[in-house]
Amino acid sequence: SLSRARAKAWVSRSTAQCPWTSTHTARLAAEPGLCKGKTVLELGAGCGLVAMTAALCGATRVVASDGDEGSCAHLEDILAANGLREKVTVPPPLRWEAASAESAKTLGAFDVIMGADVTYNPANADALCNALVAHASPSTKILLAHKRRQPADDATIKRLGDFFSIKTLATGGS
Predict the structure, then answer these.
(1) Cα–Cα distances in angstroms (integers) from residue 93 to residues 63, 97, 111, 128, in the given order
(2) What is the pLDDT along the chain (174 residues), one digit of tens a residue?
(3) CA gap 89, 91 in Å, rounded
(4) Is residue 115 within 8 Å of residue 44, measured between CB atoms?
(5) Cβ neighbours of residue 92 closer than 8 Å, sequence gap 6 or more
(6) What residues contact residue 9 under an 8 Å CB cut-off, 6+ apart?
(7) Which of 8, 61, 71, 94 could anchor a disulfide with 66, C-beta 3.0 to 4.6 Å?
């Protein structure tokens, strides 16, 4: 079940002009201290660009998660091809709706949680909140890149506000 967390969630709405992951990658390049010496979880990692960047910026532990088994296998190959297999862990598929305090014991809580293009489907809002609450502590920074495609997309951000303090860092595009 969901419980209210005191972590802060930052939402960047600047994904309209560039791929979603580049929003986080550019932020890490501009502010590498965001992850240096920290534990980092990337939700919906896809190709793992954000996780790889966090590792290169000095994170002490990086976990790149995705809910799709095929994506996780491909992610392992990408990390190996980039020489980052030892720096980034890929767990079995992380199903947001199944995340709980018990299942979070395996991965733990993180200092920083990042996600790009994970807010677009309002039907997944509760599942996303569930995964964030399970893996966040009161001091966790959550950074999500969100592109508003239609007004209904805002429902996910609104739902996140039920559990986290939301601060919009940047806006751009629609």
Answers:
(1) 12, 12, 21, 14
(2) 333 343 444 443 333 334 545 565 666 666 778 899 999 999 999 888 889 989 999 999 999 999 999 999 999 999 999 999 999 999 999 999 988 877 788 898 999 999 888 888 889 999 999 999 999 999 999 988 877 778 887 888 889 989 888 887 766 554
(3) 6
(4) yes
(5) 69, 72
(6) 132, 142, 143, 144, 160, 164, 165, 166, 167
(7) 71
